[in-house]
Amino acid sequence: MLNSSSHPAFLDEISPPSWCYETRFNGWNTPPDVYVSPYWRQFRAPAPYLHYLLGILYIALMVISCVGNGMVIYIFLVAKNLRTPANMFVVGLAMSDLLMMAKTPVFIYNSFQLGPVFGNLGCTLYGVVGAYSGLGSAFCNAIIAYDRFRVIVHPFSKSGMTMTKAIAMLVLIYLYITPFALLPAFHVWSRFVPEGFLTSCAADFFMHDFNGRSYIVGTWFFGWFIPISTVLFCYARIFLAVRNHENQIKEQARKMNVDSFRSNAAIKSSSAEVRIAKTAFCLIVLFLFSWVPYITVAFMAGFSDPSLRRITPVLSMIPALTLKASACFDPFVYAISHPRYRQELQNRMPWLCINEKVEATTNGTCDEVSKTTEHA
């Protein structure tokens, strides 16, 4: 068992305040088969109440995410009018968020046991599920943005989206991210090790050789930079296309000396497109909120001097929390923005008191992305 006597005395002087940490050092109760980075062993173990607090917080996040994403999957799959290729990407995002929560019970149990109870195998499985769900969510956001871009910016494109294409694209996403999930599991490219509180696992960011640092850079570029660039490009083009369309209509109306010559359907269609663009933009802001802390901590850990101790166990848990929070936000943002989804919720779960107006969902132009994608 590891205790403070096995560490230099000066570590006691630079450790965090006693109210935040124990007198024992990190890794004191770690199973023999679990590798703990020497970087984490120089910190005193987090106080038990911090573990319990995180465990309770994760229970709340898990419940919210499971309820929200479960409702999204249920409604989009059982309602025939919502079973479109575009909405399959929404279902794919919800499934990624649920997969992210599938590992949460392990973290909760570890938190109340103050350490990694399930050993090296449990840590590896935790890391694999985390890689698949985290990167899968990133690329689902990207593919949703591309689908919106294709429908709104190029509505007359001959390359239509079918259900088969949508499912194939989702399968390709997970094939693409498989190396980032499985290679660390077999210690081929980085490795999955406990992080911070030693109750969760991720890639070893303190592996300061080419193997470890190349994984950080590779994950950042191929797993984060590419999808975020796709999302930003698509939403920027959507915004510009909608703005230019509105300006053209206003200019034509001015030349004809009329207030507006668009039909009510066209007005509703345009407003729906703007609403969809705003919703997608909100999702990417949430995506940035969830991923920027993770990428920042990874680069700080992988490319800074370990002796500076810039990453503390408490700080290392913030990215994990923001990622879990994004899995809670996604389904509710879609629920707010999708009138037909709200209508189905009202019909199938009246006790939720949605009170969506029927007129908002019966018009054929209220779900332009799904309808246009289906008939493109």
Helix share of residues? Answer: 55-70%
Strand residues, percent = under 5%
Major sheet characteristics: 2 strands, antiparallel
CATH architecture call of the domain at 19-176 and 224-255 and 263-291 and 323-351? Up-down Bundle
Assembly type of the chains comes to single chain
Shape: elongated
The residue-averaged pLDDT reads 82
Number of helices: 13
Low-confidence stretches: 1-15, 359-376
* CATH superfamily (homologous) name of the domain at 19-176 and 224-255 and 263-291 and 323-351: Rhodopsin 7-helix transmembrane proteins
How many strands?
4
Q: Helices and strands, in N-to-C order?
A: HEHEHHHHHEEHHHHHH
Strand order within the widest beta sheet: 1-2
Structural class: mainly alpha
N-to-C span: 65 Å
Rg calc: 24 Å
Looking at CATH, which topology of the domain at 19-176 and 224-255 and 263-291 and 323-351 would you report? Rhopdopsin 7-helix transmembrane proteins
CATH class of the domain at 19-176 and 224-255 and 263-291 and 323-351: Mainly Alpha
